Amino acid sequence: MNDRVTGNMTIVVIGLGYVGLPLAVKFAEHYKIIGYDINKKRVTDLNEGRDWNNDVTNEQLKKIENNITFTTDENEIGKGNIIIISVPTPLKPNNDPDLSYVESASRVVGKHIKKGAIVVYESTVYPGCTEEFCLPILEKESKMKLGEFYIGFSPERMNPGDSAHSVDKIVKLISASHPEALEKMRIIYSKITKTHSMSSIMAAESAKIIENVQRDINIALFNELSMLFDKLGLDSSEVFDGAATKWNFIRYKPGLVGGYCIPVNPHYLAYKAHKIGFNPEFILAGRKTNDRMPIFIASKAKQLAPNGRVLIIGASYKENVAELRSSRIKNLVEALQQEGFINMQIYEPLVSDQEVFGLKNETPSGKFDLIIYAVAHETLKDIQLEHLLEKNGAIIDIQRKLDRKKFDKIRYWAP
Ligand SMILES: NC(=O)c1ccc[n+]([C@@H]2O[C@H](COP(=O)([O-])OP(=O)(O)OC[C@H]3O[C@@H](n4cnc5c(N)ncnc54)[C@H](O)[C@@H]3O)[C@@H](O)[C@H]2O)c1
Prior knowledge:
Layout: H1 3-6, E1 10-14, H2 20-27, E2 32-36, H3 40-47, H4 58-63, E3 68-71, E4 82-85, H5 100-112, E5 118-121, H6 129-142, E6 150-153, E7 172-176, H7 179-190, E8 195-197, H8 201-231, H9 236-243, H10 265-275, H11 281-304, E9 310-313, H12 329-338, E10 344-347, E11 355-356, E12 359-360, E13 368-373, E14 389-397, E15 411-413
Parallel strand pairs: 1-2, 1-4, 2-3, 4-5, 5-6, 7-8, 9-10, 9-13, 13-14, 14-15
Antiparallel strand pairs: 6-7, 11-12
The structure holds nicotinamide-adenine-dinucleotide.
């Protein structure tokens, strides 16, 4: 099979968020693309050249405008030879997978797919989900059997706010129900990046999920060590740096673990493990430790500035990303309230909301007893914290991004 076979294919991308939009735009350099989303505002904005996630510029959208259409019309899905599903896969309140988006996307795709189409899931799911959960929906809605259409799984690894690892720069795992479908996927995905074929969909689902499980566990180890060394009166960073002079010590950083992937994926894997009667003790232990971090930081805040006026700088879930969903700063605010802090303000320059997590979000003025430098956005690098501090004020530098030497006369703590 060669390029002539895939050259005039139409790719439909379902869900135009952090994952779907950059992928659709990259593919539009080579194929006709239909971007489908249920969010009308998102589709209107994209048709007018605006990506509110700031992953894709107006110029980029202009360049490929003849090759891409954005729509909320589900009938367009039927035109796709390849249909890529990149809808959210969050957690339910009880930490079980919330598959409602994948379910509704599968239903609408099943209703419209044509014979021979390949449905590729890019949403992160637990091992087995594509074949056990999604496929029966596709078969039921399409009234076809697998083999009349095909399924694939190609997980996404992109990292919002990180231009060094954009879609075209990361190896893409690909897997499919049939060798001929895998070969088509290989040709198509190879147009935009390097591919790595997996022998089964379940192996690819598993590979994706453990990437984030590993990060969660490693950060949890450093979070626990940070809590322990703090009790021992040590500067954990000094200890970590010392250990890192050994050739095989891997230096992680303690911190708040937010976002849609790292705190979510371990629960997906654990869900599958429990379903087959396996107890994933170690995988979930990391989750518990990481969830304790906001409480630990709030207790340090109480020691440094009991009942003081607090300024939290940065509220999004990671630096340079204007996304408040799934940010652990919300948990930190709650933990600070539990510790009795009532006079708090947030400064999140990347969002225009006047209130964030129940606190006023505004450019800081006046003096504070405690500044929590929570998310070190690039745009904050010149902020003069020392001018915002009361005489005996203190700083908590959650990500250890401040120049410690600049604050050697100021009470300073970092996890
Ligand atoms: N954001 C990341 O950093 C990242 C990285 C790797 C993997 N992932 C995974 O990729 C998937 C998508 O994540 P995201 O961050 O792009 O989500 P997102 O919330 O940014 O975007 C999802 C989009 O899907 C749309 N949508 C929801 N249900 C739909 C439906 N039934 N039909 C059509 N559109 C629908 C929403 O309106 C939204 O625009 C998730 O499984 C996530 O775990 C995300």
